[in-house]
Amino acid sequence: MSDTKPRILRSVRLLNAAEKRIETDFIAPPPPTTPLDTAAILKLAHEFQPVAILVTHHSPLKGADVAALPESVKLIATVSVGLDHLDVPALLARGIAVSNTPDVLTDCNADLAMMLIIAACRRAAEYYTLMKKGWGHTLGMDEMLGHRVTGKTLGIIGVGRIGQAVARRARGFEMNVLYHNRRRLDPTHEQGATYYESLEDMLPKCNILSLHLPAAPSGGPIITARTLALLPRGSVLVNAARGALVDETALIDALRSGHLFSAGLDVYQNEPNPDPRILALPNVFMTPHAGSATVETRTAMCMLALDNVTALVAGKPLPTPVTA
Ligand SMILES: NC(=O)C1=CN([C@@H]2O[C@H](COP(=O)(O)OP(=O)(O)OC[C@H]3O[C@@H](n4cnc5c(N)ncnc54)[C@H](OP(=O)(O)O)[C@@H]3O)[C@@H](O)[C@H]2O)C=CC1
Ligand SMILES: O=C(O)C(=O)[C@@H](O)[C@H](O)[C@H](O)CO
Asked: Are strands 260-265 and 235-239 parallel, antiparallel or unpaired?
Protein backbone atom coordinates (compact mmCIF):
# COMPACT_ATOMS: atom_id res chain seq x y z
CA MET A 1 0.00 0.00 0.00
CA SER A 2 1.38 3.35 -1.00
CA ASP A 3 0.53 6.34 1.15
CA THR A 4 0.35 8.52 -1.95
CA LYS A 5 -3.05 7.06 -2.73
CA PRO A 6 -6.12 8.86 -1.37
CA ARG A 7 -7.57 7.53 1.86
CA ILE A 8 -11.27 6.78 1.84
CA LEU A 9 -13.92 5.18 4.03
CA ARG A 10 -17.12 3.41 3.06
CA SER A 11 -20.02 2.66 5.41
CA VAL A 12 -20.93 -0.55 3.58
CA ARG A 13 -19.18 -3.18 1.54
CA LEU A 14 -19.57 -2.15 -2.12
CA LEU A 15 -20.09 -4.41 -5.13
CA ASN A 16 -17.09 -6.43 -6.24
CA ALA A 17 -16.08 -4.22 -9.17
CA ALA A 18 -16.01 -1.21 -6.85
CA GLU A 19 -14.17 -3.10 -4.09
CA LYS A 20 -11.49 -4.07 -6.68
CA ARG A 21 -11.18 -0.43 -7.69
CA ILE A 22 -10.76 0.59 -4.06
CA GLU A 23 -7.94 -1.98 -3.68
CA THR A 24 -6.18 -0.55 -6.73
CA ASP A 25 -6.78 3.18 -6.48
CA PHE A 26 -7.29 4.01 -2.80
CA ILE A 27 -6.23 3.25 0.73
CA ALA A 28 -9.17 2.06 2.77
CA PRO A 29 -9.90 -0.15 5.78
CA PRO A 30 -11.20 -3.65 5.01
CA PRO A 31 -14.82 -3.57 3.80
CA PRO A 32 -17.28 -3.57 6.71
CA THR A 33 -19.00 -6.92 7.23
CA THR A 34 -22.18 -5.12 8.33
CA PRO A 35 -23.14 -1.52 7.53
CA LEU A 36 -21.49 1.00 9.84
CA ASP A 37 -23.71 3.40 11.73
CA THR A 38 -22.92 7.10 12.01
CA ALA A 39 -21.05 6.79 15.31
CA ALA A 40 -18.82 4.06 13.87
CA ILE A 41 -18.11 6.13 10.77
CA LEU A 42 -17.16 9.17 12.82
CA LYS A 43 -14.86 7.12 15.05
CA LEU A 44 -13.16 5.51 12.07
CA ALA A 45 -12.92 8.86 10.28
CA HIS A 46 -10.93 10.33 13.19
CA GLU A 47 -8.60 7.31 13.27
CA PHE A 48 -8.19 7.04 9.51
CA GLN A 49 -8.34 10.70 8.33
CA PRO A 50 -9.97 10.00 4.95
CA VAL A 51 -10.40 12.55 2.18
CA ALA A 52 -13.79 11.10 1.25
CA ILE A 53 -16.48 8.97 2.85
CA LEU A 54 -18.97 6.86 0.93
CA VAL A 55 -22.26 6.52 2.80
CA THR A 56 -25.83 5.39 2.20
CA HIS A 57 -29.14 6.46 3.72
CA HIS A 58 -28.46 4.00 6.57
CA SER A 59 -25.77 6.29 7.99
CA PRO A 60 -27.15 9.82 8.32
CA LEU A 61 -24.82 12.78 8.73
CA LYS A 62 -26.71 15.70 10.18
CA GLY A 63 -26.28 18.41 12.80
CA ALA A 64 -23.57 17.53 15.31
CA ASP A 65 -22.35 14.66 13.08
CA VAL A 66 -21.35 17.15 10.39
CA ALA A 67 -19.50 19.29 12.92
CA ALA A 68 -17.75 16.14 14.20
CA LEU A 69 -16.24 15.13 10.85
CA PRO A 70 -12.44 15.51 10.80
CA GLU A 71 -10.84 18.29 8.76
CA SER A 72 -9.40 15.71 6.35
CA VAL A 73 -12.86 14.99 4.86
CA LYS A 74 -13.44 16.92 1.66
CA LEU A 75 -16.26 14.84 0.11
CA ILE A 76 -19.29 12.91 1.27
CA ALA A 77 -20.21 10.65 -1.66
CA THR A 78 -23.59 9.13 -0.97
CA VAL A 79 -24.36 5.91 -2.83
CA SER A 80 -27.95 7.02 -3.36
CA VAL A 81 -29.85 9.69 -5.20
CA GLY A 82 -31.84 10.59 -2.08
CA LEU A 83 -30.21 13.17 0.19
CA ASP A 84 -32.58 13.28 3.15
CA HIS A 85 -30.00 11.53 5.38
CA LEU A 86 -27.51 14.37 4.87
CA ASP A 87 -27.49 17.96 6.06
CA VAL A 88 -26.24 19.20 2.70
CA PRO A 89 -26.18 22.94 3.56
CA ALA A 90 -24.15 22.22 6.72
CA LEU A 91 -21.70 19.99 4.82
CA LEU A 92 -21.22 22.57 2.06
CA ALA A 93 -20.83 25.32 4.66
CA ARG A 94 -17.96 23.31 6.19
CA GLY A 95 -16.32 23.16 2.77
CA ILE A 96 -17.17 19.48 2.34
CA ALA A 97 -18.43 18.66 -1.15
CA VAL A 98 -21.37 16.27 -1.59
CA SER A 99 -22.10 13.93 -4.50
CA ASN A 100 -24.95 11.47 -5.13
CA THR A 101 -25.85 8.86 -7.75
CA PRO A 102 -28.72 10.12 -9.93
CA ASP A 103 -29.87 8.60 -13.24
CA VAL A 104 -28.12 5.22 -12.95
CA LEU A 105 -30.90 3.97 -10.65
CA THR A 106 -33.86 5.58 -12.40
CA ASP A 107 -34.96 2.61 -14.50
CA CYS A 108 -34.66 0.02 -11.73
CA ASN A 109 -36.61 2.18 -9.28
CA ALA A 110 -39.31 2.77 -11.90
CA ASP A 111 -39.44 -0.98 -12.62
CA LEU A 112 -39.92 -1.65 -8.92
CA ALA A 113 -42.67 0.98 -8.69
CA MET A 114 -44.50 -0.77 -11.56
CA MET A 115 -44.04 -4.07 -9.74
CA LEU A 116 -45.64 -2.53 -6.62
CA ILE A 117 -48.48 -1.02 -8.67
CA ILE A 118 -49.31 -4.32 -10.34
CA ALA A 119 -48.77 -6.40 -7.20
CA ALA A 120 -50.99 -4.12 -5.10
CA CYS A 121 -53.78 -4.00 -7.69
CA ARG A 122 -53.64 -7.75 -8.34
CA ARG A 123 -53.42 -8.90 -4.69
CA ALA A 124 -49.99 -10.47 -5.14
CA ALA A 125 -49.31 -10.54 -1.39
CA GLU A 126 -52.49 -12.48 -0.64
CA TYR A 127 -51.99 -14.87 -3.58
CA TYR A 128 -48.43 -15.56 -2.51
CA THR A 129 -49.47 -16.18 1.08
CA LEU A 130 -52.22 -18.55 -0.07
CA MET A 131 -49.83 -20.50 -2.31
CA LYS A 132 -47.22 -20.81 0.46
CA LYS A 133 -49.94 -22.22 2.71
CA GLY A 134 -50.62 -24.87 0.05
CA TRP A 135 -53.55 -23.30 -1.89
CA GLY A 136 -55.85 -26.32 -1.41
CA HIS A 137 -59.17 -25.16 -2.81
CA THR A 138 -60.33 -24.01 -6.22
CA LEU A 139 -61.04 -20.31 -6.10
CA GLY A 140 -64.63 -19.29 -6.72
CA MET A 141 -65.35 -17.05 -9.70
CA ASP A 142 -65.64 -14.02 -7.45
CA GLU A 143 -63.08 -14.98 -4.84
CA MET A 144 -59.92 -12.93 -4.19
CA LEU A 145 -60.44 -10.64 -7.14
CA GLY A 146 -58.01 -7.86 -7.78
CA HIS A 147 -58.35 -4.80 -9.98
CA ARG A 148 -57.38 -4.33 -13.61
CA VAL A 149 -54.29 -2.16 -14.09
CA THR A 150 -54.60 -1.46 -17.81
CA GLY A 151 -56.35 1.80 -18.56
CA LYS A 152 -56.48 3.06 -14.97
CA THR A 153 -55.72 6.63 -13.89
CA LEU A 154 -52.31 6.90 -12.23
CA GLY A 155 -51.44 9.98 -10.21
CA ILE A 156 -47.75 10.64 -9.60
CA ILE A 157 -46.44 13.08 -7.03
CA GLY A 158 -42.87 14.02 -7.94
CA VAL A 159 -42.32 13.67 -11.66
CA GLY A 160 -38.57 14.02 -11.90
CA ARG A 161 -36.20 11.37 -13.26
CA ILE A 162 -37.94 8.38 -11.63
CA GLY A 163 -41.48 9.78 -11.85
CA GLN A 164 -41.04 10.34 -15.59
CA ALA A 165 -39.72 6.79 -16.02
CA VAL A 166 -42.80 5.47 -14.17
CA ALA A 167 -45.04 7.58 -16.42
CA ARG A 168 -43.35 6.11 -19.53
CA ARG A 169 -43.98 2.58 -18.25
CA ALA A 170 -47.57 3.42 -17.31
CA ARG A 171 -48.27 4.48 -20.87
CA GLY A 172 -47.44 0.91 -21.92
CA PHE A 173 -50.38 -0.09 -19.72
CA GLU A 174 -52.56 2.50 -21.45
CA MET A 175 -52.88 4.40 -18.20
CA ASN A 176 -54.06 7.97 -17.94
CA VAL A 177 -51.22 9.75 -16.12
CA LEU A 178 -51.79 12.79 -13.88
CA TYR A 179 -48.99 14.47 -11.99
CA HIS A 180 -48.20 17.01 -9.32
CA ASN A 181 -44.86 18.79 -8.88
CA ARG A 182 -44.28 22.15 -7.29
CA ARG A 183 -43.51 23.42 -10.79
CA ARG A 184 -45.05 22.24 -14.05
CA LEU A 185 -42.65 20.41 -16.35
CA ASP A 186 -41.76 21.87 -19.70
CA PRO A 187 -44.67 20.51 -21.81
CA THR A 188 -42.17 18.71 -24.09
CA HIS A 189 -41.32 16.47 -21.08
CA GLU A 190 -44.93 15.81 -20.10
CA GLN A 191 -45.50 13.22 -22.83
CA GLY A 192 -49.26 13.28 -22.40
CA ALA A 193 -49.37 13.49 -18.58
CA THR A 194 -51.71 16.12 -17.16
CA TYR A 195 -50.32 18.60 -14.61
CA TYR A 196 -52.22 19.47 -11.44
CA GLU A 197 -50.99 22.39 -9.42
CA SER A 198 -53.17 21.26 -6.53
CA LEU A 199 -53.34 17.85 -4.88
CA GLU A 200 -56.93 18.66 -3.89
CA ASP A 201 -57.82 18.65 -7.59
CA MET A 202 -55.70 15.65 -8.61
CA LEU A 203 -56.22 13.09 -5.86
CA PRO A 204 -59.98 12.56 -6.31
CA LYS A 205 -59.27 11.50 -9.92
CA CYS A 206 -56.65 8.83 -9.13
CA ASN A 207 -57.20 5.06 -9.07
CA ILE A 208 -53.55 4.61 -8.13
CA LEU A 209 -51.22 7.14 -6.51
CA SER A 210 -47.45 6.66 -6.71
CA LEU A 211 -44.93 8.78 -4.80
CA HIS A 212 -41.63 9.77 -6.40
CA LEU A 213 -40.70 13.01 -4.66
CA PRO A 214 -37.80 13.39 -2.20
CA ALA A 215 -38.43 13.56 1.53
CA ALA A 216 -37.76 17.10 2.68
CA PRO A 217 -35.13 17.03 5.47
CA SER A 218 -37.50 18.77 7.91
CA GLY A 219 -40.83 18.25 6.17
CA GLY A 220 -43.75 16.22 7.46
CA PRO A 221 -45.60 13.58 5.45
CA ILE A 222 -47.45 14.54 2.26
CA ILE A 223 -49.77 11.51 2.64
CA THR A 224 -51.91 12.13 5.72
CA ALA A 225 -55.46 11.34 6.80
CA ARG A 226 -56.48 14.49 4.92
CA THR A 227 -54.83 13.64 1.60
CA LEU A 228 -55.84 9.97 1.83
CA ALA A 229 -59.46 11.06 2.26
CA LEU A 230 -59.18 12.92 -1.06
CA LEU A 231 -58.45 9.65 -2.91
CA PRO A 232 -61.48 7.72 -4.16
CA ARG A 233 -62.61 4.75 -2.10
CA GLY A 234 -60.90 1.60 -3.39
CA SER A 235 -57.77 3.31 -4.66
CA VAL A 236 -54.19 2.08 -4.30
CA LEU A 237 -51.14 3.82 -2.80
CA VAL A 238 -47.57 3.04 -3.86
CA ASN A 239 -44.49 4.42 -2.13
CA ALA A 240 -41.04 3.65 -3.54
CA ALA A 241 -39.64 7.04 -2.48
CA ARG A 242 -39.24 7.56 1.28
CA GLY A 243 -41.15 6.34 4.33
CA ALA A 244 -41.23 9.82 5.84
CA LEU A 245 -43.63 10.91 3.10
CA VAL A 246 -46.47 8.85 4.58
CA ASP A 247 -48.28 9.12 7.92
CA GLU A 248 -48.33 5.37 8.54
CA THR A 249 -51.10 5.44 11.15
CA ALA A 250 -53.36 7.20 8.64
CA LEU A 251 -52.30 4.67 5.99
CA ILE A 252 -53.08 1.73 8.27
CA ASP A 253 -56.52 3.18 9.08
CA ALA A 254 -57.27 3.65 5.38
CA LEU A 255 -56.18 0.09 4.56
CA ARG A 256 -58.15 -1.40 7.44
CA SER A 257 -61.32 0.50 6.61
CA GLY A 258 -61.18 -0.38 2.91
CA HIS A 259 -60.88 3.25 1.89
CA LEU A 260 -57.67 2.09 0.22
CA PHE A 261 -57.96 -1.23 -1.61
CA SER A 262 -54.28 -1.95 -1.07
CA ALA A 263 -50.77 -0.50 -0.93
CA GLY A 264 -47.39 -1.31 -2.40
CA LEU A 265 -44.52 -0.20 -0.19
CA ASP A 266 -40.75 -0.29 -0.59
CA VAL A 267 -39.97 2.25 2.13
CA TYR A 268 -41.10 2.78 5.72
CA GLN A 269 -40.80 5.29 8.52
CA ASN A 270 -38.85 2.85 10.65
CA GLU A 271 -36.33 0.92 8.56
CA PRO A 272 -35.36 -1.89 8.82
CA ASN A 273 -38.13 -2.61 11.34
CA PRO A 274 -41.42 -1.40 9.85
CA ASP A 275 -44.48 -0.86 12.03
CA PRO A 276 -45.78 -4.38 12.88
CA ARG A 277 -49.31 -3.16 12.12
CA ILE A 278 -48.25 -2.73 8.48
CA LEU A 279 -46.60 -6.14 8.38
CA ALA A 280 -49.85 -7.70 9.66
CA LEU A 281 -52.04 -6.21 6.92
CA PRO A 282 -52.98 -8.71 4.19
CA ASN A 283 -53.49 -6.03 1.53
CA VAL A 284 -49.97 -4.60 1.48
CA PHE A 285 -47.29 -5.84 -0.91
CA MET A 286 -43.93 -5.03 0.65
CA THR A 287 -40.32 -4.91 -0.44
CA PRO A 288 -37.30 -4.03 1.76
CA HIS A 289 -36.12 -0.67 0.35
CA ALA A 290 -34.93 -2.47 -2.75
CA GLY A 291 -35.69 0.09 -5.48
CA SER A 292 -32.09 0.16 -6.75
CA ALA A 293 -31.25 -3.41 -5.75
CA THR A 294 -30.04 -4.95 -9.00
CA VAL A 295 -26.50 -6.02 -9.81
CA GLU A 296 -26.37 -3.61 -12.72
CA THR A 297 -27.68 -0.58 -10.85
CA ARG A 298 -25.85 -1.09 -7.59
CA THR A 299 -22.59 -1.61 -9.52
CA ALA A 300 -23.22 1.61 -11.45
CA MET A 301 -24.06 3.48 -8.22
CA CYS A 302 -20.85 2.33 -6.50
CA MET A 303 -18.73 3.17 -9.54
CA LEU A 304 -20.32 6.61 -9.87
CA ALA A 305 -19.67 7.34 -6.19
CA LEU A 306 -16.01 6.38 -6.73
CA ASP A 307 -15.88 8.47 -9.92
CA ASN A 308 -16.75 11.44 -7.74
CA VAL A 309 -13.92 10.63 -5.33
CA THR A 310 -11.47 10.22 -8.21
CA ALA A 311 -12.51 13.57 -9.67
CA LEU A 312 -12.18 15.29 -6.29
CA VAL A 313 -8.63 14.07 -5.70
CA ALA A 314 -7.66 14.96 -9.27
CA GLY A 315 -8.99 18.50 -8.72
CA LYS A 316 -11.58 17.99 -11.47
CA PRO A 317 -15.29 18.86 -11.41
CA LEU A 318 -17.38 16.17 -9.71
CA PRO A 319 -19.50 14.16 -12.20
CA THR A 320 -22.60 14.36 -9.99
CA PRO A 321 -22.20 17.14 -7.44
CA VAL A 322 -24.98 18.17 -5.08
CA THR A 323 -25.13 21.92 -5.07
CA ALA A 324 -27.75 22.84 -2.50
N1 LIG B 1 -36.82 3.06 -2.94
C2 LIG B 1 -35.60 3.27 -3.33
O3 LIG B 1 -34.74 2.42 -3.22
C4 LIG B 1 -35.24 4.56 -3.98
C5 LIG B 1 -35.90 5.73 -3.65
N6 LIG B 1 -35.56 6.90 -4.27
C7 LIG B 1 -36.28 8.13 -3.91
O8 LIG B 1 -36.82 8.71 -5.09
C9 LIG B 1 -36.66 10.11 -5.00
C10 LIG B 1 -36.75 10.75 -6.38
O11 LIG B 1 -35.59 10.49 -7.13
P12 LIG B 1 -35.39 11.23 -8.57
O13 LIG B 1 -36.56 11.02 -9.44
O14 LIG B 1 -34.05 10.86 -9.07
O15 LIG B 1 -35.41 12.76 -8.09
P16 LIG B 1 -35.70 14.05 -8.96
O17 LIG B 1 -35.10 15.19 -8.21
O18 LIG B 1 -35.32 13.84 -10.38
O19 LIG B 1 -37.30 14.18 -8.92
C20 LIG B 1 -38.00 14.59 -7.81
C21 LIG B 1 -39.26 15.31 -8.29
O22 LIG B 1 -40.06 15.58 -7.15
C23 LIG B 1 -40.62 16.89 -7.29
N24 LIG B 1 -40.84 17.42 -5.95
C25 LIG B 1 -39.92 17.76 -5.02
N26 LIG B 1 -40.51 18.19 -3.90
C27 LIG B 1 -41.84 18.13 -4.13
C28 LIG B 1 -42.99 18.45 -3.36
N29 LIG B 1 -42.88 18.93 -2.12
N30 LIG B 1 -44.20 18.25 -3.91
C31 LIG B 1 -44.32 17.77 -5.17
N32 LIG B 1 -43.27 17.45 -5.95
C33 LIG B 1 -42.05 17.64 -5.44
C34 LIG B 1 -39.57 17.69 -8.07
O35 LIG B 1 -40.19 18.70 -8.86
P36 LIG B 1 -40.42 20.18 -8.27
O37 LIG B 1 -39.09 20.63 -7.75
O38 LIG B 1 -40.94 20.96 -9.44
O39 LIG B 1 -41.46 20.05 -7.20
C40 LIG B 1 -38.98 16.62 -8.99
O41 LIG B 1 -39.64 16.61 -10.23
C42 LIG B 1 -35.31 10.28 -4.27
O43 LIG B 1 -35.20 11.53 -3.64
C44 LIG B 1 -35.33 9.14 -3.28
O45 LIG B 1 -35.85 9.57 -2.04
C46 LIG B 1 -34.61 6.93 -5.23
C47 LIG B 1 -33.94 5.80 -5.61
C48 LIG B 1 -34.18 4.53 -4.99
O1 LIG C 1 -30.90 6.10 -4.08
C2 LIG C 1 -31.67 6.21 -3.11
O3 LIG C 1 -32.11 7.29 -2.73
C4 LIG C 1 -32.08 5.00 -2.36
O5 LIG C 1 -32.91 5.06 -1.50
C6 LIG C 1 -31.50 3.68 -2.65
O7 LIG C 1 -30.94 3.59 -3.91
C8 LIG C 1 -30.50 3.37 -1.54
O9 LIG C 1 -29.63 4.39 -1.46
C10 LIG C 1 -29.78 2.11 -1.77
O11 LIG C 1 -30.64 1.15 -1.34
C12 LIG C 1 -28.45 2.02 -1.02
O13 LIG C 1 -28.67 2.04 0.35
From this structure: parallel
